[in-house]
Design goal:
Mean pLDDT: 75
Strand content: under 5%
Low-confidence stretches: none
Helix content: over 70%
Oligomer: single chain
Radius of gyration: 33 Å
Shape: flat
Structural class: mainly alpha
Distance between the termini: 69 Å
Length: 179
Amino acid sequence: MNKHLPYRDWIFEEETLPADSAQALRRHLQGCPDCRAAAEAWKAARQSLANAGEKSPRTGFTARWKALAAERIRVPSRRPAWAMLAVSSAGSLVMALALAVQTSTQGFSLAGVFTRDLSAAAGALEDWMDTTSSLGAFLTIVSRSIPPACYLFAIFFVSLIGILWLLLFVRSTAQGKQQ
């Protein structure tokens, strides 16, 4: 057990300590150089804060702040479009890599893929009946039953969404420059 625990808390306490706690803290500070140094540093910091004067902003602060706020309202940020484009592109890349890994480890014929995956899904469904964890079984079914064609389909649509976002971004940028 840490011998400094209650005393460290008491050193930084803002409220007045009860008499027995204050007496125990004083005895501890006499014998503990670490806690005594912390208490002296805290006392010096509080004194420094008490003596510090209030700072005023530089002249024209309010005008600069209002001008900055007006500029941000006038020119909206374009970060969300770039972020969506990046996320869409990253998703497409991840799906393309997953498809490449899956098709490189297995022979790729569309009929073979569907029949193999259909039988795998049936086997997974049978495993699910025997499994006590339905979440684990669900994930097993999903991982066994997604054919590579579905990855291609998903890559196509995620890429399409990314292209649409890019076109919308370019269009909104062009309209912003015209205005």
